[in-house]
Amino acid sequence: MDIYLPIAGLSVNIFVIILLGGAVGMLSGMFGVGGGFLTTPLLIFYGIPPMVAAASASTQVTGASVSGVFAHMRRGGVDFHMGAVLVAGGLLGTIFGAVLFEVLEAWGQIDTVINILYTVLLGSIGGMMAKEAWQSVSATRSGKPLPPRKRRHHPLVANLPGRWRFYRSGLYISPLAPLILGFLTGILTMLLGVGGGFIMVPAMLYILGMSANVVVGTSLFQILFVTMSSTMVHSLTTRAVDIVLAVFLLIGSVTGAQIGARLAQRMRPDYLRLLLAAIVLIVALRMALGLGWQPDEIYTVQFL
């Protein structure tokens, strides 16, 4: 059954969109990621304009983050002090990202920039994930466990002025570090429609040196508010949020997340990470090829 998407300006099959959202939700449940970094590329592959795909995907990420935040709050896994600084940086990044989005749109380069950023980000993140997962699998097979990582913040963070104590995270660092991290994540959320968790979580662990038991919950706390802000800014400025598309994506992702969570219980974590890395690299490769292929329709007509 087809339905017309008023903002995207095309008709899509409802069941395909729900299945797409379900697939991303399943990945979210299996791997513990928001899935926003895969939603936008998959929508683009289906034929949704990149600008609409990026703006609408952030709405889905917002909905998917709510339950996660409350779950981590109940077990004390959220550093609200750190989260507030990250949110402040994220809100500033969202505003800057909106200006950048409109400039790129005026130049006619927003679709190309979205594709290039996704190719670079997914390729680099997928490569690092694959390396770490393969090392873990190899260590398990050989019976020689990897040495535990030492929790410490990056030397650049240690040199920043004006330190604050973040008791829940066990840190004594400058608030400029999480502020800058939140700012960069806010820009990515605005441009790409991602929650930023796939970048935020490693950065919080290996750059800020946060305690692992509050990283995911604090990241989701930041993602919740930044994606809400991104959706509102997109709605008021670019007007690229297709609420019809977002609703059907959310329906699928909620169901898929439950299925993915059950599947995750039957698979080993090392192999789960390796599978996720493979999926990310395949999507990155497909987007890289798409940048070089000539489309079937060189010109498109859109009524404003």
Structure description:
The chain has one domain. The chain contains eleven helices and four strands, in the order ββααααααββααααα. It has a two-stranded antiparallel ribbon. The protein is globular and about 50 Å long.
Note the main attributes of this structure.
4 strands, 11 helices, 5% strand, mainly alpha, TM_pro_TauE-like, 71% helix, two-stranded antiparallel ribbon, 304 residues
Secondary structure topology:
Layout: E1 2-5, E2 10-13, H1 14-31, H2 36-46, H3 50-74, H4 80-107, H5 110-142, H6 155-158, E3 164-166, E4 171-173, H7 176-192, H8 197-206, H9 212-236, H10 243-264, H11 269-292
Antiparallel strand pairs: 1-2, 3-4
Helix pairs in contact: 1-2, 1-10, 2-3, 3-7, 3-9, 3-10, 4-7, 4-9, 5-11, 7-8, 7-9, 8-9
Brief overview:
With 304 residues, the protein is mainly α.
Q: Could you tell me how far the N terminus lies from the C terminus, measured between alpha carbons in angstroms?
A: 26 Å
- How many domains? 1
Largest sheet: 2 strands, antiparallel
Count of DSSP H/I helices? 11
Beta-strand portion reads under 5%
General shape: globular
Radius of gyration: 19 Å
Output the strand order for the largest sheet: 1-2
Q: Which residues sit in consecutive blocks of at least 5 with pLDDT less than 50? A: none
Helix content: over 70%
Average predicted local confidence, pLDDT = 75
Keywords: Cell membrane, Membrane, Transmembrane, Transmembrane helix
Protein name: Probable membrane transporter protein
InterPro entries: TM_pro_TauE-like (IPR002781), TSUP/Inactive_protease-like (IPR051598)
Membrane topology: Multi-pass membrane protein
